[in-house]
Amino acid sequence: MKVTIYGSGYVGLVTGACLAQVGNDVLCVDVDERKINMLLNGEIPIHEPGLDKMVQANIAAGRLKFTLSAAEGVAHGLFQFIAVGTPPDEDGSADLRYVLTVARSIAQHMDGYRIVVDKSTVPVGTADRVRAAMLEVLEQRAFNAEFDVVSNPEFLKEGAALDDFMKPDRIVIGTDNPRTTELMRELYAPFNRSHDRLVVMDIRSAELTKYAANAMLATKISFMNELANMAELLGADIEKVRIGIGSDPRIGYHFIYPGCGYGGSCFPKDVQALERTAREIGYNAELLSAVEAVNYRQKDKPFEKLQKHYGANLEGKTVALWGLAFKPNTDDMREASSRNLMEALWKQGVTVQAFDPVAMEECTRIYGQRPDLKLCQTAEAALEGADCLVIVTEWQQFRSPDFDAIKSKLNDSVIVDGRNLYSPEQMAKKGITYYAIGRGC
Ligand SMILES: NC(=O)c1ccc[n+]([C@@H]2O[C@H](COP(=O)([O-])OP(=O)(O)OC[C@H]3O[C@@H](n4cnc5c(N)ncnc54)[C@H](O)[C@@H]3O)[C@@H](O)[C@H]2O)c1
């Protein structure tokens, strides 16, 4: 089938590569010239495990192409996927400017029936706005073309995106037209073989489903962080509590890890956008506001723990930082806890020596070269001459380090662990002063 995808970011590129992988003819459109030029050369602008090979293989097979031209995109696909960013507006609501720009350009260039698929995370009612924007342009063109708008939210996780797309838990299709249900079913058939994963519903419910999923996951994290802070004050160990509650199948072990807050391109902005949607309809979504507030506070924990150890003034210190990405297996630093920590440290005149297996280029893109940030080639190199170590991303390679080497390299044997990777007992035995989240230390 012929598919056009607007936006070649984490979602658009993965969607394009996976749809091409199963045999579709896919054209990806982006407005970012640098990105498109890289992709035309088979280079991948983001870090996503396995994506480079899949993109290169499908380019070689002639099933995956890239262009800057929206007109070419509209001419190509029966399916027109919108996978552009929906960043937070100044008031926290989702900024739909990119989505509506794409909708208008589809209407500007279309010469016949198209299915417009909203894959970006968009507030309830966006499909109506997409339809209205398209009708306005078609009216200006005095051109009467048929089209359908479908909501097809994406649930992939960065770092495991290919697997999530190829073997989805569910494929949510929001539509008001049985004809599009059948066409979407056909498009997704290769990902729907072992059992029917298609969940078909009305458009508004599909739009809300995506926000509901992210808000639920964010709530689980903030709930555990709230409890972790209480555990600390009560002399309890949140890790024991986690296992104690996770063993209840009604609760489960997923997503109840305490830590220094969630980040990324989705949870923070989606919780915020859902809360703003509530406000717009005159509803006070108190739980969502609390989830957001708890997370905001939690991101300060590593900094607070450093102050607990060294006192309020950290000026002149050098901190080794392991992890920059908002989670392992991605180079995405949007809303990453590392950023809150580094920015707080820099304000106090602290030098940061950081290491991340894949996000250092992204870190340079965001912060540029600065004298108080040293990006190190290895985790060990980041320790050289530093006073203490802070961990904010739970990369696998940080899970079982050589603690004797850490001790010998740091000026002070202090670890602040924002992801609870180590055992406080083991750290005590090694003579390391260890601060974790919700573990009485
Ligand atoms: N990243 C995730 O893990 C994830 C998961 C599920 C859903 N989502 C949602 O999917 C959407 C995209 O997220 P992302 O992380 O892929 O964003 P991204 O920022 O990585 O990519 C967006 C891309 O859209 C391009 N773009 C902007 N305007 C355009 C236009 N007019 N035409 C063509 N391209 C245009 C940008 O240049 C950019 O390359 C968002 O709504 C997000 O909330 C993201």
UniProtKB/TrEMBL annotation:
InterPro entries per UniProt: 6-PGluconate_DH-like_C_sf, NAD(P)-bd_dom_sf, UDP-Glc/GDP-Man, UDP-Glc/GDP-Man_DH_C, UDP-Glc/GDP-Man_DH_C_sf, UDP-Glc/GDP-Man_DH_dimer, UDP-Glc/GDP-Man_DH_N, UDPglc_DH_bac
Reactions accelerated catalytically: UDP-alpha-D-glucose + 2 NAD(+) + H2O = UDP-alpha-D-glucuronate + 2 NADH + 3 H(+)
Superkingdom of origin: Bacteria
An example molecular function term from Gene Ontology annotations: oxidoreductase activity
EC number: 1.1.1.22
Keywords for the protein's UniProt record, in alphabetical order: NAD, Oxidoreductase
Tagged with keyword NAD: yes
Domain UDP-glucose/GDP-mannose dehydrogenase C-terminal: from-to ranges: 320-424
EC category name: oxidoreductase
Gene3D superfamilies: Cytochrome c1, transmembrane anchor, C-terminal, NAD(P)-binding Rossmann-like Domain
Family of the protein in this entry: Belongs to the UDP-glucose/GDP-mannose dehydrogenase family.
Official protein name in the record: UDP-glucose 6-dehydrogenase
